[in-house]
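Inverse folding, one chain.
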């Protein structure tokens, strides 16, 4: 039956480096009898080659050798092969050196002359310690790896929580906005009727008055009243547009046609304002099932805003592309851009920076885009212009 020590020795490879042939042979004999796999070298350089070749668990190294001092040989082995443990042979009476060697990385020192049992016992002790230490190193590495993994998980988790929170926030904002629009629809549908009828009567009476007067002042005032009535009426119309829920006609609509129709209505303004229109229709987009009048409203609202910011002329670009069953439209202007501080508000109902703006253009356009499961965002904005991007899924 093998003892535990023998098992340990049987597995271990040892390289003995000593310039004394007798010691070399004797030690090799003792150790191989004990079950070690032994290689011997008469010089340090020869020993280094053996170490490189056999990766021994142990090296028995003589301190006193002609061509290299024991301490630097020890250093070379310990730095080059950290898993190889070194036991030093030292002459009797050199305990101070032995202490220095231990500090330099030796695992043990054996005073010459030595006896067999003592040699084997001490080597086997070193082997045991080595096994425990290497195991500890492995555990430590595993521990560090797990810590790093946990840290990575933590970071991923934090990132996901952040993303989810942002998405939730965005969804909440959208709910608030659509609730505002719904409330608005309820109110405006009722109000529109109540206001538009008397407004109509006022307009009619003013028109009658106009027929009976030639006084230029009177005519001017009446003209102004009619203009203001028209303005009130248009605000009410916009409110109604914003709240309209039922779609009348749904048909296969091609966005390029819708956009062309919307643009046509602006032809006179485009000409007077000397605006260059660039159409980049990269594809003929797949048709979308929608109410064409509703889709036209989106582009009308965007063109109105674009023309507002290009009062001194400029460039209006329309870009249509399609990829992965999504039609993308980009409407760009060369106006002054949207200031960063109002950017988060522009899709809010009633948000406007214009003297006569109702602040309904963008929220209505976005609501319509959402009805068709599309999206509408500001893709870029800077003092040289703004690009709005719309995306619609194609289902047919
Ligand atoms: N292309 C653009 N360039 C710069 N600012 C813009 C642009 N489009 C919209 N805005 C800003 O967003 C605000 C909201 O636009 P929105 O169309 O909703 O309302 P409005 O144009 O002010 O009024 P309405 O369209 O109801 O007459 C505008 O007042 C303006 O400040
Ligand atoms: Mg507008």
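Residues assigned per position:
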């Amino acid at each position: 039956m093998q003892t535990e020590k023998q098992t340990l020795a049987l597995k271990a490879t040892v390289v003995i480096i000593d310039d004394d042939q007798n010691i070399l042979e004797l030690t090799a004999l003792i150790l191989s009898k004990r079950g070690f796999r032994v290689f011997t070298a008469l010089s340090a350089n020869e020993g280094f080659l053996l170490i490189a070749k056999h990766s021994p668990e142990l090296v028995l190294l003589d301190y006193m050798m002609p061509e290299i001092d024991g301490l630097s040989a020890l250093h070379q082995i310990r730095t080059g092969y950290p898993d190889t443990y070194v036991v030093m042979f030292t002459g009797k009476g050199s305990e101070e050196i032995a202490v220095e060697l231990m500090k330099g990385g030796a695992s043990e020192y054996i005073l010459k002359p030595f006896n067999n049992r003592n040699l084997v016992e001490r080597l086997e002790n070193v082997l045991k310690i080595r096994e425990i230490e290497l195991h500890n190193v492995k555990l430590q590495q595993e521990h560090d790896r797990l810590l790093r993994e946990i840290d990575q998980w933590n970071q991923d988790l934090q990132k996901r929580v952040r993303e989810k929170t942002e998405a939730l926030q965005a969804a909440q904002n959208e709910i608030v906005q659509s609730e505002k629009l719904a409330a608005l629809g309820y109110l405006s549908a009722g109000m529109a009727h109540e206001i538009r009828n008397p407004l109509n009567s006022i307009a009619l009476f003013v028109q009658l008055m106009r027929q009976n007067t030639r006084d230029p002042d009177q005519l001017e005032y009446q003209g102004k009243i009619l203009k203001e009535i028209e303005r009130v009426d248009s605000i009410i119309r916009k409110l109604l547009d914003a709240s309209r829920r039922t779609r009348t006609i749904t048909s296969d609509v091609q966005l390029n046609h819708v956009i062309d129709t919307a643009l046509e209505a602006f032809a006179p303004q485009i000409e007077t304002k000397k605006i260059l229109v660039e159409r980049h229709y990269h594809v003929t987009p797949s048709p979308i099932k929608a109410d064409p009048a509703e889709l036209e409203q989106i582009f009308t609202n965007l063109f109105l805003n674009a023309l507002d910011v290009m009062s001194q002329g400029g460039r209006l670009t329309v870009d249509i592309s399609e990829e992965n069953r999504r039609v993308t439209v980009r409407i760009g202007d060369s106006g002054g851009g949207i200031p960063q501080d109002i950017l988060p508000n522009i899709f809010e109902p009633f948000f406007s920076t214009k003297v006569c703006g109702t602040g309904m253009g963008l929220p209505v356009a976005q609501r319509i885009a959402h009805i068709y499961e599309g999206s509408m965002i500001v893709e870029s904005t800077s003092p040289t212009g703004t690009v709005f991007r719309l995306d619609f899924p194609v289902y047919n």
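The mean pLDDT is 89. The longest strand covers residues 314-323.
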